[in-house]
Amino acid sequence: MPLDSLDKPAILREMCCFLASAADVPDRAADIHRVVVEREEVLSTGVGDGLALPHGKCRGLETLEIVAGTTRKPIDFDSMDGGPVRLVVLMVGPPSAAGSQVKALGHLSRTLRDTELLDRLVNAEDAGRFHELIVAAGA
Fold first, then answer.
1. Phi, psi of 90 (to 5 degrees)
2. Is the pLDDT of residue 139 over 70?
3. Domain limits of the chain?
4. Chain segment 47-95, per-residue pLDDT in tens
5. The dihedral of CA 63, 68, 3, 85: what is its sign?
6. 113 touches 107 (CB < 8 A)
7. Would you call 85 exposed, middle or buried from its count of C-beta atoms within 10 A (0-12, 13-18, 19+)?
8. Could you tell me the pLDDT band of residue 138, with boundaries at 50, 70 and 90?
9. In CATH, what number does 8-136 get?
10. What is the model's pTM?
């Protein structure tokens, strides 16, 4: 989804609301946001090369949920490489899915290190094309 927000705190809030809505638990949006922000305060999830992988564990979710968004302009995300972020992939699941979450984060991180793929995803014309690209990449 294209993100409307223009800074890291607002992006996290927007993505958490989107994930809560997509997971059909809109009443959990504040809890999802809280756990994601708490995790982000430990260490930025801006992994470099324009990618951020914020995540958290939240009671009340049944399964691991993942949403992705692209920014309108490069955003400072306190990334490990000091560079701005253009693609944000948010992953939140129940505490019981911690192992699956670690595996999924690793897989996404490796797959999205391909800067050509990352560029194509950021510039995808719409959600359908984004989905085609991510599936074709095996993510």
1. -100, 130
2. no
3. 8-136
4. 999 999 999 999 989 999 999 999 999 999 999 999 999 999 999 999 9
5. positive
6. no
7. buried
8. confident
9. 3.40.930.10
10. 0.93
Burial class (CB in 10 A: 0-12, 13-18, 19+), 40: buried
CB-CB contact of 93 with 63 (8 Å): yes
Q: What are the C-alpha distances in Å from 2 to residues 18, 22, 42?
A: 11, 15, 27
- Continuous H helices in the chain: 8-22, 29-42, 98-111, 115-122, 127-136
* 131 labelled catalytic: no
What pLDDT does 119 receive? 93
For residue 62 the two structure tokens come to 């049944």
Buried b (16+ CB within 10 A) or exposed e, 94-131: beebeeebeebbeebeeebeeeebbebbbebeeeeebe
- Cα(86)–Cα(74) distance, integer angstroms: 5
CA quadruple 19, 21, 27, 29: dihedral, nearest 10: 30
> Which amino acid would we find at residue 53?
L
